[in-house]
Amino acid sequence: MSLAKGMTALSPSNRRKLLIGAAAAAGAAGLAGGLWWRHGDDRMRGEEPARAPLPVRDPAFPNALRVPGARGMYGVIDITGPLAIVAKTVHHEILPGKPVAMLGFEVEHEGNRYVNPVLRVASGAGVRADFWNALEETSIIHWHGLKVDANNDGHPHYAIPASSTYQYNYRVPNRASTYWYHPHAHGRTAAQIHQGLAGLYIVEDAEELALRKALDFELGVTDVPLVLQDKRLDETGAPYYGPEGSEWMHGYLGNGVLVNLTDRPHLDVTARVHRFRVLNASMARIYRLAFESGGRMLDFALLGGDGGLLPAARPAREAFLSPGERVDIALDFSRVGPGASVTLKSLAFDPMCGPAPAPGVGTGPDCVTPPGGRAGSRPPQAPPLADGSPIELMKLYVLAARAPVRAIPAALSPGGIPGHSGASVRRVAIDHHRMAWRINGRLFDMRGIGLTVKSGSREIWEISNPADGMPHPMHMHGFQFRVLERAGSPEQVRRLALAERGLTATDLGWKDTVLVWPGETVRIGIEFTHHYVGDQVYMFHCHNLQHADRGMMVNVRIAA
Ligand SMILES: [Cu+2]
Q: Is residue 547 packed enough to be buried (19+ CB in 10 Å), middle (13-18) or exposed (0-12)?
């Protein structure tokens, strides 16, 4: 960022002259978006790189995005030996200058302290981790997306009491992708994630290393994870979790959206290809992601989904991302050029709130009946952002690039979609009863087995959601699956279809979480193959965390 520093030393009037001069140069070249710079013409004209136009900073995004670094919050740990991960109260400034108590996963590693570290591991490597529960309640870590055995999965059945430990010991069978880890104590998952417990888990393999080399990606610089979380912050800047009334049915919405636990963030990027690994770690909020610059939506390249790279990058302009899902995106900032600013947005959509919580009780614009009674039960706080409302998530400022632009390789990953002909079909029905969402007419029973599948079998699950319901992000533990078909989709989803059978951007590739909209039947193909000995009990559940905590989960036994 030495270019930026050089420019800030200029007086405003000099700076203005430079901006005008550079704009004229771009215009003279007759090319949109600073292609003159991309081809290095400036050097032929003898200009210094620092003469590229600088973006105009928006005071509404005052905070530099927190990116994974060498230590501290989101520091990167390459897993090469045993880890001790402690869930505990930590002190952190979510809002600058306002240190508050929240929860975090703390790790001491090679003399450094990390909170919610980005854990990075090679595919096939062994992981040994001791989880220490220093909370005042039960907890357990679930490795979201990992195809580990049931003992290492972090199913709520394995939740441990306060002041005790759980040992994980597994080999990572997954392909390279962005996975994540979070607590999964039944009834308390939403509270513990909202109060701060969540981290990224990046698996790497040869395909990933080839892509990184081809595009010169560096984690935290040109390969930037974006953890989206709406949180309810009180006036002291502390996260406050206290759902009331219909918030249990519709979801607990934040009064602001944090990116990497940064409030109203900005990020300086250079005029080249950058990668964003976007995780929706919110409790209930769905985002309709798009990049906008100068009043137009930018095309981005879809590189992958929950479970790794696609066979080839696909162009897209927007994508719904529901809680639990990840999307791997590349954006070529040379196409907007130095001096541009780009906004990562969630566009407006119909949140499809579902039924009113009780006869004669309407829902407000945020899908939630404003909590009444119990005056003073919440600390002073701004009201939640309405569900489906447009949100500006982050500002990206484009600076000049020193390295030449490289093209995204045509092929990212070999391997096609496995066939599912002859697979047996299983119907999974979502419904609601007495303000609770259910799977196959039942609420979660920790000890009961709701579904039994023969190990090694291939199945197609037809997940149906009634038209008067609300969207549910359905998550499978222990396996990755393929989305085969989306039928009965609402118009706002149908028009985003990128592939046949109604599939949208976030349905492509391997998945562990799929969003099912009201009125839809979504067919997913799963191969229940693993090498673990004996029966394994996983679960299938909604990743709207209020829904999950209220029992929208089912145990799935893989019978050996
Ligand atoms: Cu749900």
A: buried
Across the beta sheet with 472-476, the strand order is: 451-454, 553-559, 536-542, 472-476, 513-516
Please identify every residue whose CB atom is under 5 Å from ligand 1, which is an ion: 472, 542, 544, 547
Distance between CA 123 and CA 126 in Å, rounded?
9
Q: How far apart are the CA of 140 and the centre of ligand 1, in A?
A: 21
Residue 356 domain flag: no
What is the per-residue pLDDT across 40-74, written as a single tens digit (0 to 9) for each?
333 333 334 557 889 999 999 999 999 999 999 99
Residue 29 has pLDDT above 60, yes or no: no
Residue 367, CB-side half-sphere exposure with 13 Å CA sphere: 26
Are 226 and 260 in contact by the 8 Å Cβ rule? The answer is: yes
* 257 and 342 housed in the same domain: yes
Ligand 1 centroid from CA 334, angstroms: 40
Tens-place pLDDT, residues 466-508: 999 999 999 999 999 999 999 999 999 999 999 889 999 999 9
Q: Within this chain, do residues 298 and 226 fall inside the same structural domain, yes or no?
A: yes
383 — phi, psi (to 5°)?
-70, 155
Q: Cα(93) to centroid of ligand 1, in Å?
A: 31
DSSP state, residue 410? S
Q: What pLDDT digit, counting tens, does each position of 500-533 carry?
A: 899 999 999 999 999 999 999 999 999 999 999 9
Based on the fold, state whether residues 251 and 152 are members of the same structural domain.
no
CATH number for the domain harbouring residue 127: 2.60.40.420
Is 387 found in the same domain as 260? yes
Task: Clarify whether residues 199 and 222 are in a common domain.
Answer: no
What's the sign of the alpha-carbon dihedral 143, 262, 244, 347?
A: negative
Q: Do 388 and 300 share a structural domain?
A: yes
Give the distance (Å) from ligand 1 centre to CA of residue 118.
27
> Considering the entire predicted model, what is its pTM?
0.89
The encoded tokens of residue 342 equal 């780009």
